[in-house]
Amino acid sequence: MLDQVQSRRPALGQALAETATAIDRLFDRTLAVPRDSRGRLVEAMRYAAIGGGKRLRPLLVLASGALFGVPRNHLLRAGMAVECIHVHSLIHDDLPCMDDDALRRGRPTVHIAYDEAVAVLAGDAFLALAFETLASPSTHPDAQVRSHLVLALARRSGAAGMAGGQMLDLAAEAEAELDLDAVTRLQRLKTGALIRWSVGAGAILGDAPADAIASLMAYAQCLGLAFQIADDLIDAAGDESCAGKRLRKDGDRGKKTFVGLLGIDRARDRAERLADQAEDHLRDFGPAADLLRDIARFAVERDR
Amino acid sequence: MLDQVQSRRPALGQALAETATAIDRLFDRTLAVPRDSRGRLVEAMRYAAIGGGKRLRPLLVLASGALFGVPRNHLLRAGMAVECIHVHSLIHDDLPCMDDDALRRGRPTVHIAYDEAVAVLAGDAFLALAFETLASPSTHPDAQVRSHLVLALARRSGAAGMAGGQMLDLAAEAEAELDLDAVTRLQRLKTGALIRWSVGAGAILGDAPADAIASLMAYAQCLGLAFQIADDLIDAAGDESCAGKRLRKDGDRGKKTFVGLLGIDRARDRAERLADQAEDHLRDFGPAADLLRDIARFAVERDR
Questions:
Q1: Which of A116, A289, B32, B233 could form a disulfide with B303 if both were Cys (CB 3.0 to 4.6 A apart)?
Q2: Cross-strand pairs, A104
Q3: pLDDT band for position B1 (cuts 50, 70, 90)
Q4: Which residue ranges make up each domain of chain B?
Q5: Which among B97, B120, B175 is the nearest to A98, CB-wise?
Q6: Mutate to test the interface with B, among A30, A40, A41 (most CBs of B within 10 A)
Q7: Residue range A155-203, pLDDT digits in tens
Q8: Angle at Cα B240 formed by Cα B238 and Cα B242, nearest 5°?
Q9: Residues of A with Cβ-Cβ distance to B100 under 8 angstroms
Q10: How far is B194 from chain A (nearest CA, A)?
Q11: Is A92 an interface residue toward B (CB < 8 Å)?
Q12: CB contact under 8 A, A131 and B136
């Protein structure tokens, strides 16, 4: 996938590649394997976190923080924190009692490669690591900023955010009727919450003015939804070997998705329009926000 | 159990009862049930968190913070945060892939009363709620204090703390030889970490001087170990209907415990000695620390 991005959008391709390398290195340094039975837990965490992720959320933190001159090492730590929450959710969502997936990023999922107990604990430990990372003075010298980041990420990870979204998603399989509003709300919690946090984190770290934050949050809102519709399109019409995970599972389970409700063409139109809107919200930032613009376009180009 | 405490140690009995009521009320206010499919998730969280817990960790926060004149509402919020982590660990440890327990506090465990997916998500949401609670300005006006509390609790919940301890515990079932040092290290992570945080949190919230913190942490270290040995004694020799959970499971699984390694009499002696040492560390605090002393005695009296 990265090859494809690099040929179409070289600046974004390079930024994604550099972010992936930097985040891998940070995980590598953070996840030192202890010499006792905990070794297996930390190895499972390394297996889940290092290599293979798109690192879209950390890139959003970097791209947003760059608008306000935030030092790169602070942005990378906040990026690793949100990636911890993302990896946590992938590990737990793949469990047999949840989505029961055996493949992720082209490799066996954590509970297959290790076992279920290790997968539950590894997911838990990533949640804790996210907040440990944010609360550490290495992430920002001002405790007010750190505390703000923790509060926002905790809200967006729990019952009022991502975990709540996954609950709605599990319930959606059983529900006969789920309209566009309900699917939109579900995805806003399940995937949108972390995308909004990532864009907001750069602004919080950079002590951005209120109007800049409002524009960025409006951008993130559109981006999150565009990104999810593109994900649904990949699930409905994508190539399994490219995606590195089982596809067509939404339809098989009768899960309501944007594609299921709108059809492929209208879903694609909707995603394009959301990417346009996302770009519109960046108009006051000038060329400094080109990377964020590229990300919005990339989000909806991924499925082709 | 509370009746027994109240007759032997009336002040502690009253403190436990008051803390339980206050923590129940705080959970009740915090866990408002949404009117959509997330309702089931939040109901499961209420089921796990409200009613029935000893609230020993919140009481430790209260008793330690009282030494430094910390307002009670701040202490209760920190107490709820550590109780969130505790409840999180109980829900996940009870899962079929972990300890596979069907009974907890005399009631079906969360994955039995609801289902496994809800249990995984409820545990996750409690982890997030703990950090949301600590990072909120209602817990303390100084962000430095909030950030410190988050950092310490995150470290003690993850791979280097409680989750790591549970991993050691799962591995211990398979290991032929586990000596006293190894069992001590395991329990220091698995149960000691949260007890140390609880005692430390009162001191952090009260901006306590370094020597007071050192004494309290030494107290907490002894208390945590005494508490765990008493737990092992209850498992080996206690009454199932009093404990409200399945007992005798450690021996059945060949798990190495203090009782298994020392025998009942020597384990009880060891616990008593640790409670004495815990009390010794409180000598500079005078009668203000009587509640902490009572807790140390209570920890080792529980099994009789």
A1: B233
A2: A107
A3: low
A4: 2-301
A5: B120
A6: A41
A7: 999 999 999 999 998 888 777 677 888 888 888 888 899 999 999 999 9
A8: 85
A9: none
A10: 13
A11: yes
A12: no
A contacts of B171 (beta carbons < 8 Å): 37, 40
CB contact under 8 A, B121 and A146: no
Residue to test with chain B: of A41, A85, A100, A131, most B Cβ within 10 A: A131
| Cα–Cα dist B245/A277, whole Å | 56
Cβ contact B38–A164 (<8 Å)? yes
Q: Please give the structure tokens belonging to residue A271.
A: 């995603």
- Residue-level pLDDT at A137: 98
When pLDDT is averaged across residues B136-146 and rounded to a whole number, the result is 98
Q: What CATH number matches the domain at B2-301, 1.20.120.790, 3.40.50.10050, 1.10.600.10, 3.40.50.300?
A: 1.10.600.10
On whether the CB atoms of residues B224 and B191 are closer than 8 A, the answer is yes
Contact A151 B136 (CB under 8 A): yes
B297-to-B193, B223, B272, B294 alpha-carbon distances in Å: 20, 9, 8, 5
Contact B168 A38 (CB under 8 A): yes
Beta bridge pairs of residue A108: A103
Q: How many angstroms separate the CA atoms of B9 and B292, rounded?
A: 12
Mean pLDDT of B185-214: 95
Each residue's pLDDT tens digit, B88-97: 999 999 999 9
Q: In the numeric block, which tokens belong to residue A48? A: 């889940």
Q: Do B129 and A42 touch (CB under 8 A)?
A: no
A163 or B236, higher pLDDT: A163
What is residue A248's predicted lDDT score, i.e. its pLDDT?
Answer: 63
pLDDT tens digits, residue range A4-16?
A: 777 788 899 999 9
- How far is Cα B145 from Cα B139, in angstroms, rounded to an integer? 9
Distance CA B226, CA B221 (A): 9
Residue B128 to residue A157, Cβ atoms within 8 A: yes
Percent of residues, chain B, with pLDDT higher than 90: 74
CB B275 within 8 A of CB B225: no
Ramachandran sector of residue A34 (left: φ over 0; alpha: ψ -120 to 50; beta: rest): beta
Q: In the numeric block, which tokens belong to residue A47? A: 């297996």
**Chain B, window 153-182: residues with a beta carbon less than 8 angstroms from a chain A beta carbon:** 153-155, 157-159, 161, 163-164, 166-168, 170-172, 175
Q: Could you give the percent of chain B with pLDDT greater than 70?
A: 92
Closest residue in B to A182 (Cα–Cα): B36
Residues contacting residue A228 through CB under 8 Å, at least 6 positions apart: A187, A190, A191, A192, A258
**Least Cα separation, residue A162 to chain B (angstroms):** 9
Q: Write the pLDDT tens digit of every residue in A90-137.
A: 999 999 999 999 999 889 999 999 999 999 999 999 999 999 999 999
Bridge partner list, A103:
A108
CA of B97: which chain A residue's CA is closest?
A117
Report how far residue B25's alpha carbon sits from residue B12's, in angstroms, rounded to the nearest whole number. Answer: 20
